[in-house]
Each structure stands twice: as structure tokens, then as C-alpha cells.
Amino acid sequence: MSKLTALAVSIAVLGGVWAFLAFNPLASVALVWVGFIAWGCFFHTGGDTAALQKTIAGMVYGAVIAGLALYLVSSGMLDGLGVLAVPVIIAVTVFLLVIVAGCNLLSVVPANVYGYAATAGLALTAGTAASVTAMDATNPVILVIISTVIGAVFGLASGKLAGAIGK
After folding, report:
1. Cβ distance 96 to 106 under 8 Å?
2. What is the pLDDT along the chain (167 residues), one digit of tens a residue?
3. pTM of the prediction?
4. Buried-most residue among 6, 60, 100, 115 (CB within 10 A)?
């Protein structure tokens, strides 16, 4: 079996397992789409142990920074800036996504952005932006972090499974 076929089979099988888990027993704490973003990020980052670490660290960092942005917007702290409040908050927090790239674990800027975008997108579409301080599954930051870790681990597992069946 070719390496590509082995990888396709392993991702298909584990993708089905991940979908089952995310839509059933983990439905209240995991987002299938965020897991797949992390899975793709894992392979785009190199598909090895370092990629696992950088994917999780970067996406978690991005989720936390998005949580900070959502908190600042929801709190109204910068309402005095009028229509510039949200753009200023986004500009400052996006700067924070990139400036940390000198740190090895956070050097994959796309991972940082994926975590930020997934968290902001979830919060804005689900109307949970004000829940970023909640210590439960209503907090979009927590949901993205859990889904990121599981998705990245599934990426690692699919790579190992592909290696095993491709021999």
C-alpha cells in the first residue's frame, strides 16, 4: 500500500472515530470542526512530535488571546474609543499572535491564528462572547482548547497508524 493510501485510510478511519466521539459522548465539550483544524495544523506543521507540541501550544495560545479580545470587547472597557474600540482590540491582540513567533513553541504563526479564529468564530456565531470567563463548557476558549488537544492527538495517531499499515 502506498504511503498516501495508508494515510488516507488512517485519517478516514480515525476521522470517523473522532466524529463519533465529538457528536456523541463528547458533544458537550468537543467541537468536531476545531479538532479537524488542529489535525490539519499538525500535518501542516510537520506531522511529528514537535508538530504536536507546536500545534497544541499555538492553537491554545491563540484561543487564550481571542478570549482576551472577547473579554475586552464584552466588558466595554474601551467603549470610550467608539467605533474604534473593536478594531483597536483586534489589532493589539493580533499583534500578540505574531510577536511571540520568536519562541520555539509559538513559532508556527498559522497555529496561533487558527486558535484565535476558531475561538472568535465560535463565540461570535454561538453568542458566547460574554462567557469567556466561565469555568465550564459555555466558555468558547475552553471548548477550543479541549478540541484542539484531541484533534492534534488524533493527527499524531493517524500518522502512526498510516506508518503501521503502509509497511
Report:
1. no
2. 999 999 999 999 999 999 999 999 999 999 999 999 999 999 999 999 999 999 999 999 999 999 999 999 999 888 899 999 999 999 999 999 999 999 999 999 999 999 999 999 999 999 988 899 999 999 999 999 999 999 999 999 999 999 999 87
3. 0.95
4. 115
Backbone phi and psi for residue 66, each to the nearest 5 degrees, phi listed first: -65, -40
- Alpha carbon distance 140, 155 (integer Å): 22
H or E element in which residue 32 lies: helix 32-44
Biggest CA pair distance of the chain = 63
Say if CB 1 and CB 162 are below 8 A apart: no
